[in-house]
């Protein structure tokens, strides 16, 4: 038995009974009913706390609890916002992966993992545009250095032309590839399919190898320029072929060869076309004065 002087022993107080007798209409709360709370009456015209909750927040919470979050529309800003939400180390890994192709290593499965981004492709294309235009102007200036009859004039139109060529290649070619693969998937069964944004991401990162190559084209060594073109074509083309090979591997051999050949050919046309247009030194045309005789 516990001692009478135990301070932790429960004791009954007479004052509690007296208070209950005096206020019989008072509201009492039992500690056993944890979920029951006293309801407070509100004046007419005023809403309670539950009525003032944000309905949009309730909708978002209901979507999260049900696991059926509504996807944003294709024409909304939120749809493209998620493609720019990417960590810096992921961008670095994808750039390195686009420069170092390995056999049986699919760029989409290894680096994208169904999470494509537009941050890397956008800045790679933008950097390549300015690198091509600026390097072309510098190469033209160095080629005519020491020529007194030559007057250097910056060609700003090269920026617009480079942007048109590079961004058209980075968007229109993936659109054609995506449409072709979608058409072949309707014709045949069990073919690997890629989303349009995944194809855009692959093509965008495959252009990263051309940025250092374009800078080297400034040097007045024609053999060095063509060597860098060959190296860049091999690395970039290998990434594209290894990525799209599983998509047409089970297709007809002629279709597979034609599809991969077109991918490689367009890549060659881009590199050789930029080298020929932006880095071809124009001939120096001089006009000799004519002596007029009377």
What is the helix fraction of residues, given as a range? 55-70%
Question: Looking at the chains present, what oligomeric state does this protein adopt?
Answer: single chain
| Relative strand content | under 5%
Number of helices: 11
Number of strands: 0
Q: Taking Cα atoms only, what radius of gyration do you get, to the nearest Å?
A: 35 Å
* Biggest sheet details: none
The chain-level structural class is mainly alpha
Order of helices and strands: HHHHHHHHHHH
Quickly describe the structure.
The chain has helices at 14-22, 55-66, 77-81, 88-99, 107-112, 119-143, 157-187, 196-206, 210-216, 222-248, 253-278.
Describe this structure in words.
- By secondary structure, the chain is mainly α.
- It has a domain at 86-98 and 106-278.
- 58% of the residues lie in helices and 0% in strands.
- It is globular and about 110 Å long.
Secondary structure blueprint with pairings:
Elements: H1 14-22, H2 55-66, H3 77-81, H4 88-99, H5 107-112, H6 119-143, H7 157-187, H8 196-206, H9 210-216, H10 222-248, H11 253-278
Helix pairs in contact: 6-7, 6-8, 6-9, 7-8, 7-11, 9-10, 10-11
Throw out a few tags for this protein:
mainly alpha, single chain, 294 residues
């Amino acid at each position: 038995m516990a001692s009478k002087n135990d301070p932790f022993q429960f004791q009954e107080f007479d004052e509690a009974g007296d208070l209950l007798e005096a206020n019989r209409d008072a509201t009492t709360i039992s500690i056993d009913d944890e979920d029951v709370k006293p309801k407070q009456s509100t004046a007419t015209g005023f809403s309670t706390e539950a009525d003032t909750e944000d309905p949009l927040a309730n909708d978002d919470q209901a979507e999260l609890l049900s696991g059926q979050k509504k996807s944003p529309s294709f024409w909304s800003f939120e749809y493209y916002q998620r493609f720019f939400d990417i960590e810096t180390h992921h961008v670095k890994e994808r750039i390195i992966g686009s420069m170092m192709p390995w056999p049986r290593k699919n760029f989409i499965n290894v680096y994208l993992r169904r999470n494509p981004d537009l941050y890397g492709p956008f800045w790679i294309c933008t950097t390549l545009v300015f690198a091509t235009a600026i390097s072309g102007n510098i190469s033209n200036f160095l080629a005519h250095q020491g020529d007194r009859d030559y007057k250097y004039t910056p060609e700003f139109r090269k920026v617009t032309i480079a942007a048109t060529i590079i961004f058209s290649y980075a968007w229109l070619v993936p659109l054609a590839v995506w449409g072709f693969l979608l058409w072949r998937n309707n014709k045949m069964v069990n073919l690997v399919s890629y989303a349009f944004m995944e194809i855009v991401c692959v093509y965008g990162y495959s252009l990263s190898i051309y940025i250092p190559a374009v800078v080297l084209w400034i040097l007045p060594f024609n053999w060095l320029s063509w060597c860098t073109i060959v190296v860049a074509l091999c690395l970039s083309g290998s990434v594209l072929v290894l990525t799209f090979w599983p998509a047409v591997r089970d297709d007809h051999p002629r279709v597979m060869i034609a599809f991969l050949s077109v991918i490689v050919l367009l890549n060659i046309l881009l590199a050789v076309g930029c080298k020929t247009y932006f880095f071809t030194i124009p001939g120096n045309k001089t006009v000799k004065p004519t002596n007029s005789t009377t």
